[in-house]
Design brief:
Elements: E1 2-7, E2 9-10, H1 16-28, E3 35-37, H2 52-55, H3 62-74, E4 77-86, E5 92-99, E6 105-110, H4 121-124, E7 133-136, E8 139-143, H5 152-160, E9 165-169, H6 177-191, E10 194-198, E11 201-204, E12 207-208, E13 214-216, E14 222-225, E15 231-236, H7 240-248
Parallel strand pairs: 1-3, 2-11, 3-4, 8-9, 9-10
Antiparallel strand pairs: 1-15, 4-5, 5-6, 7-8, 10-13, 11-12, 13-14
Helix pairs in contact: 1-3
Length: 265
């Protein structure tokens, strides 16, 4: 399975419309990949809070339209990162879109853990309440977004739902880059799953982004890592390695907490 992570740069002098077009062109260039991933809130910028309301859209809005055509042209499964979604009652959500190679929207995921404490995303957006997996040929994706990476119980829920490949789009700030790498590896090791963590480059509303998108295998080995500039990481994954790792080192079978019926010892 070939996966491409597009670490797109988000800069204030580029319009949202222009960036949509550029992202679509980058997706089209990934023909031959099986899965393509974009970062969190790349159309507007994860820290561009003052633009959230103005740039909010529906899940079938302009970002979906641009990504649908790109996914179809490239013939890839596309995790199109996330958008500022406005639902029917006006609530904003940080919502990820997953499209099929036919350009169809197959699943959405509303970010559960909102960043900002008492400001920013935490006060401007509603929280999702559903764990989301997506079945692809040969593997199952588990969806999370940025700040979710700090909450291991979410990922336990995803693997219990069958996830083998954890996809984490993000707009992670440069000042906490060490946490980004550490947490991506931790989520891979503790869940014995691949982690594809795709961040942005550039600067969102004055906040420098970490870049350093990363692909980690089920043993915690870093298979590829980007730098700080716009970059595409393309990595070949072996979906069978998840089952092999869990069989070779069956730590997940020794879980005693967080299960409805703990195993008898």
């Amino acid at each position: 399975m070939r996966a491409s992570l597009i670490q797109i740069a988000v800069e204030p002098d580029e319009s949202v419309e222009a960036r949509r077009g550029r992202a679509a062109a980058l997706v089209r260039e990934q023909r031959g990949a099986d899965l393509v991933v974009l970062p969190e809130l790349w159309p507007v910028g994860a820290f561009a809070y003052e633009s959230f309301a103005a740039e909010a859209e529906t899940t079938d809005g302009p970002t979906f339209e641009a990504m649908s055509g790109a996914a179809s042209d490239a013939g890839v499964w596309l995790h199109a990162g996330s958008i500022v979604e406005r639902d029917a009652d006006g609530t904003l959500y940080n919502t990820s879109l997953v499209l099929s190679p036919a350009g169809e929207l197959v699943r959405t995921y509303r970010k559960i853990h909102r960043f900002g404490f008492d400001r920013g995303e935490a006060t401007l957006m509603g929280a999702g309440d559903e764990l989301v997996t997506v079945a692809l040929p040969g593997t199952t994706l588990g969806l999370a977004t940025c700040y979710d990476l700090r909450f291991p119980e979410l990922f336990r829920g995803l693997i219990d739902a069958g996830a083998e490949l954890l996809v984490v789009p993000a707009g992670w700030p440069a000042r906490r880059r060490a946490h980004w790498t550490l947490l991506a590896q931790a989520r891979a090791v503790e869940n014995q799953a691949y982690v594809l963590a795709c961040s942005t480059a550039g600067t969102h509303a004055g906040v420098e982004q970490s870049g350093h998108s990363i692909v980690v295998d089920p043993w915690g080995e870093v298979l590829a890592e980007a730098g700080t500039a716009e970059e595409v990481l393309t990595v070949d994954l072996d979906p069978g390695k998840v089952a092999a790792t869990r069989e070779q080192f069956p730590a997940l079978k020794d879980r005693l907490l967080g299960l409805e019926t703990p195993p008898r010892r």
